[in-house]
User: Fold these one by one.
Assistant:
Number 1:
Amino acid sequence: MNAPATLDLSSAQQALDSQPFSRLLGTRITAFGDGAATLEVGIREELHQQNGFLHGGVLSYAADNAITFAGGAALGPAVLTGGFSIQYVRPALGHTLVARAEVVHAGRRQAVVRCDLLTVTEDGTEALCAVAQGTVLTAGA
């Protein structure tokens, strides 16, 4: 995450918009602060795999970014993903993918973050489709 020094929702969206891949997907950050972040991606046909479900790579992308933004909300703007794992629990179908990440532990230089990935239908019904956990590190020395 390469964000301006001020950490708020607007600067987080600017940081997200500076990523060409995030712009390609049309990703929005809808919540940011207090060690948490929520990203949303509209689900469209171009993001599906061969069986008609949202591609796992899109889920992983959303988890990675939500984890890093949540870590940045706790550690400051100069952070990088140290690593993450993801478990897919059901095929992703719906209108919108929501990645909700929250820091579960933060030290001075790293944070452990959990991320729930849900799909939302047009009527607002949510379904958990994956769970991820990662480590976010400060980018400085």
Number 2:
Amino acid sequence: MAPRPSGAPTRPAAPSATGDAGVHNGVRRTGFPLDPVVTVDFGVIQRETSARTQKSANDPAEGPVRTCIGCRRRELAVDLLRVVAVDDATGRNAVTVDVARRLPGRGAWLHPDPRCLDHAVRRRAFGRALRITGSPDITAVIERFASTETLDSPGQENR
């Protein structure tokens, strides 16, 4: 044990169970007769910060982070599509893409990648993420992905 610097505050250990109030030469002893005197040097103790505190302290201006329901990766909300459940004319739940990110209700987040959509469909993640019973109608989301795929396909920009 390293020597304590002079003037550093110390705190004695808990009192002993022997009834002598646990004090010996001004220092409290633990209840075990073979334990040495325990002193704590508060000048040496360093507190660890949580991962949440460290992350927010490093980059507070990045924005909110959301989890994709397809691949389960965390990304900034501006990089993901927000989908919400709305009631359609038949009384069933339908999932639609919230382009303006202003529709009421619980939203779920999805990468604009067809693989993430495929993963979310196979895992039946829309119902769980939006907390709705049954399998929702996701044709609007599929159509949105199909329309962006045709615009992004190579060789189509000059036609």
